[in-house]
Structures are given as structure tokens and as C-alpha cells.
Amino acid sequence: MCGRYAFYSMDFSALAEAVAQPDLFADAEPRYNVPPGTLISVARRADDEAPVTIEQLWWGYRPAWAGAKAPQPINAKAETVATSRYFAPAFKRHRCLIPANGWYEWLSLDGRKQPHFITRSDSQTLYLAGIWTDRGDDLAPGVAIITEPARGSAQEVHDRMPLALDNDSLEPWLDPHFTERDAIRGVTRHIDAGLIRHWPVSTAVNKPGDDRNAALINPL
């Protein structure tokens, strides 16, 4: 599951050689509580021949062919994203990356849910694997973040986590020449589980309207 994340460093250095305009969002305001149903920064190719660009896409995936009443998932499971009729065309041709500094999950404790912030121990930018699709409405193309079974210390908080790719996997993930699941798996790897750490944070993060408050990620 990944239903809320933070992106405040605006560091795209790991993608610098691949991205056509790496400074596009250099002056963007940090966001410490990014909710679904909003525009988010995404690295993608608009088509097979286009360069990698960083754009603002809509966090909510619904292919145009599915119709206006179809579901708008924010996540897609790594186990089925390549075979699901809903997601497979995007996995084959429209893969993308969502830069983040960490994400939130809620741990049930004594009948209440305690939010935790999960991030990299080395403070580097996380690149979350995603897929995008043209929605066929007035919104920007829609995005779903791919999730996998939780690894490392993330398992202490939730049973799933976003698929965060290591830096050597970023360009292959965006390469349109890789279209088959086995080929994509052969050139991409998730980050080392030992890099993942987390800490409890204020329940103020439960309110998605406040995404400019840097204190939201502070340990309790």
C-alpha cells in the first residue's frame, strides 16, 4: 500500500543524464503529505521516441477505454501489474518513476492507528516505480504506484510497500525497448532492504490538506 508520501528534497540527480529538463521543478515547494487525487511530480516518456521529462500527472489511474465510472486505483500490485488487463498495457509501454523522500503507513496499536514515516537511511531520493495512462478526461494522465510485499523494517508497519528502485535501475525502467516482464525484471532491482528505516510521527499527518508542514515527518 502507498496512499500518502512526502517529496521535499526536489533532488533528481540520479536521473540527471536521462531527464531532458532536470531543473524543471527546482523551485517547486516541498510537499510533506502528498495525497491521492492531486498532481504529483513524475518522470516519464510521453511516447517511445520522447525524452524523459518530469511532469505533473494525476495520482489516480483510469485508462480512457475503461470509461468514466471505472475505478481509479492509486496502486498496482507488482505480482499482477504485468498480467492484469487494466494495468498490463501501461506496464509494457508507459512505465514511470515517482520521486519521493518517504511514505507513510499506519500501524495498529491498542485499538488506534499510529502513523509512521518510512524512508531511506542514507537520505537519498527514493524512486517509486509506477505506470501511467491517458485518462480521457480533462485531467492530466493518471498514475498508479506499484507496490510489493514489504521488506526490511517496513514489515514492522505494513505488509506492503511501494516498489522503490535502485539508482542503476532507473533508466532501464524508463527504457521503451524493454516491454516483456522477464526482460524488465532482468534489468531492474529494488533498493536494498537494509536501507529502509521508519519512525512514528504525529497523527497530524492523518489530515491530507496540510502538505507544507515540515514537522509532519519529525519523529515523536
Automatic annotation (TrEMBL):
- InterPro entries cross-referenced by the UniProt entry: SRAP, SRAP-like
According to the UniProt entry, its GO molecular function terms are: lyase activity; peptidase activity; single-stranded DNA binding
Which keywords describe this protein according to UniProt?
Covalent protein-DNA linkage, DNA damage, DNA-binding, Hydrolase, Lyase, Protease
Keyword DNA-binding attributed: yes
* Annotated GO biological process: protein-DNA covalent cross-linking repair; proteolysis
Q: What is its EC number?
A: 3.4.-.-
Q: Does the keyword Acetylation apply?
A: no
Q: Which PANTHER family match?
A: ABASIC SITE PROCESSING PROTEIN HMCES, DC12-RELATED
The text of the family note is:
Belongs to the SOS response-associated peptidase family.
The identity of this protein, by name, is Abasic site processing protein
Q: Which organism was this protein described from?
A: Salinicola socius
